[in-house]
Amino acid sequence: MNNIRMATVPKKAFAFCRWTICILFWITSILCFFGIKWFIFIPLTIMFLSGVLTVRRAPLIVLYNVLFNRDKTAETDILNVNSIRFSHFVGSTFCIIAILFLYVFKIDVVGYIFIGILTFLQTIAAFGYCSAQKLYECLVLGKNCCNFGKRIRGGQCNVR
């Protein structure tokens, strides 16, 4: 059976995390246009650490809480720990694939394509649409589906 663990984080901290990663991928995409490839290691590190440390101890959540979260009674989000971990590991995997193409296989165009896909997907997620988190919850738990996940499950999801 699926072990569902939930975590409560400040709503603004979760938004800060989504948007910071989105901005980092946009910076990565722009820098790649100028031939600066190393920046992809920054979002990779943050996403990988977030997956390993889970959502409550994720680097950007902790950073937000230390620097900006003065109101301890602020609105919170209740998040599925496994879906957030899945999301971060999917992003990390895409980063690693891009790095392999950029540095090991020396096929920069394919690496740039993966970075572009990541940027596009993270932008969609930052706006609250179909993220890997929602896809996980839809496919594994049968709830919180975006339209893409709903199509995969044949319309058997609750759409938020």
What would you note in describing this structure?
With 160 residues, the protein is mainly alpha-helical. It has two domains: 7-127, no CATH class; 129-160, no CATH class. It has seven helices and two strands. It has a two-stranded antiparallel ribbon with strand order 1-2. Helix 1 (11-33) packs across helix 3 (59-67), helix 2 packs antiparallel against helix 4 and helix 4 crosses helix 6 (132-141). The longest helix has 24 residues, at 81-104. It is globular and about 45 Å long. The chain starts with 5 loop residues before the first strand and ends in an 8-residue tail after the last helix.
Low-confidence stretches: none
Question: Total strand count, please?
Answer: 2
The ordered string of helix (H) and strand (E) elements is EHHHEHHHH
Estimate nothing, just give the exact number of structural domains: 2
Q: What spatial order of strands do you see in the largest sheet?
A: 1-2
What gyration radius follows from the Cα positions, in whole Å?
Answer: 16 Å
Strand content: 5-15%
Provide the helix percentage.
55-70%
Question: Helix- and strand-based class?
Answer: mainly alpha
Report the major sheet. Answer: 2 strands, antiparallel
Give the rounded overall mean pLDDT: 90
Envelope shape: globular
Number of helices: 7
